[in-house]
User: Which sequence fits this backbone?
């Protein structure tokens, strides 16, 4: 039996903006793919993938998951925005009633610049805590 190795997941909730990467699979979009988007929030992040919740599993007739569709994702981290390309792997409906239905989506990271990767990895490791710069301030004892 082969063991499945998974990346460590970090519970991190940040805003995410998703749009379709331009390709032949995004038919019937009246505007450029970057203009049409859906907003959501991440639930957990890892070095190789992300999970997020959105209010709709599709934009117009195009599903966020399936057919190897590549999505542009913009994460709004506390100190910067990180851009990446992701591919949805699975989704499930979460919510008790159809009027409050939301979708939990699991996606793998397919592409990211080195600069974005560094900022993303720092956020995974440190969260929103600021890294110690090593500067110390000394007080003066006035007694």
Assistant:
């Amino acid at each position: 039996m082969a063991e499945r190795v998974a990346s460590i997941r970090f519970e991190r909730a940040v805003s995410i903006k998703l749009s379709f990467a331009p390709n032949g699979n995004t038919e019937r979009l009246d505007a450029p793919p970057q203009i049409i988007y859906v907003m959501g929030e991440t639930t957990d992040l890892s070095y190789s993938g992300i999970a997020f919740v959105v209010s709709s599993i599709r934009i117009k007739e195009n599903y966020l998951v399936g057919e190897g569709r590549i999505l542009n994702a913009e994460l709004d981290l506390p100190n910067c925005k990180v851009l990446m390309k992701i591919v949805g792997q699975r989704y499930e409906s979460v919510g008790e009633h159809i009027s409050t239905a939301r979708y939990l989506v699991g996606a793998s990271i397919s592409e990211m610049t080195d600069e974005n990767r560094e900022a993303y990895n720092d956020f995974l490791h440190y969260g929103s805590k600021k890294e110690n710069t090593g500067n110390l301030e000394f007080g003066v004892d006035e007694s």
